């Protein structure tokens, strides 16, 4: 296997808390192993424009606790086309880069997969996404922080809902995945959780609300994943108001606060372990074009194309828990 000398790290797609911790781990592990480490600004866009700079241990000082990403992130249309990826390759070659660590979500991995099959620069993916919508890892960098932010916000909403005897319909992020909704909903004792992995039946929701009303339970929280097939929180609220106009129903869309903030201990640990493992994978040469995951507390490698294709299944037991604990 060819020896790796110069590696690059970039963050791409949606940002996630903990990306900085992962960048730091990649830079410091690379330098420890006598590699030159380059940062690419703005994800694939920076590869195309040549926005690439050498990083030192000091460049990543004091960032492990910071949300966002010091390398910035972006979406890059040109990278979908072969010509764009070729231009990116030529820029990387100018710096002698012979290995890349891409920290991003499934879209970023699709790009990395294409790039690494077309050109002779291996890529390692680190799952950096608050949505946890990637197969091959129990954790993704940013999920734990996002879910804790959602929990903190929903707890506050419950206080005001309780004071006024209100029904709150709360929309959380997650794109096409319902993990933020499921985890934050269970952790805040939500009365109902709507998510794309399960069919939403508005009649069941109305029945539950009416049953709660009969036993004088007027405080209800329904957590809705943004990707739920019924629409978002506004659509659910509209349907509920049509059927139960006497209920005091409010909507709260948590939005971008879920992407920001200082990463939790778990996200920092996951990011640090994965960043270290990414550089080791580039050095050992056996796991090129794989995503680093953590499964049962062990580092696992999943080919990039598999990580984006496979979807995680949610054990139906989780839905039972929601129902029983909200009774
Ligand atoms: P995320 O990585 O968070 O899922 P996106 O889906 O926006 O975010 O993907 C980030 C970037 O990855 C895109 O802007 C594009 O440059 C690249 N990308 C995504 N999908 C593909 C694809 N099918 N082919 C090539 N590049 C892609």
From TrEMBL:
Record keyword Magnesium present: yes
InterPro entries the record matches: ATP_PFK (IPR022953), ATP_PFK_prok-type (IPR012003), PFKA_ATP_prok (IPR012828), Phosphofructokinase_CS (IPR015912), Phosphofructokinase_dom (IPR000023), PKF_sf (IPR035966)
The entry's keywords: Allosteric enzyme, ATP-binding, Cytoplasm, Glycolysis, Kinase, Magnesium, Metal-binding, Nucleotide-binding, Transferase
UniProt-listed PROSITE patterns: PHOSPHOFRUCTOKINASE
Residues that, per the record, bind ATP: 14, 75-76, 105-108
Subunit structure: Homotetramer.
Protein name: ATP-dependent 6-phosphofructokinase
Organism of this sequence: Chitinophaga caeni
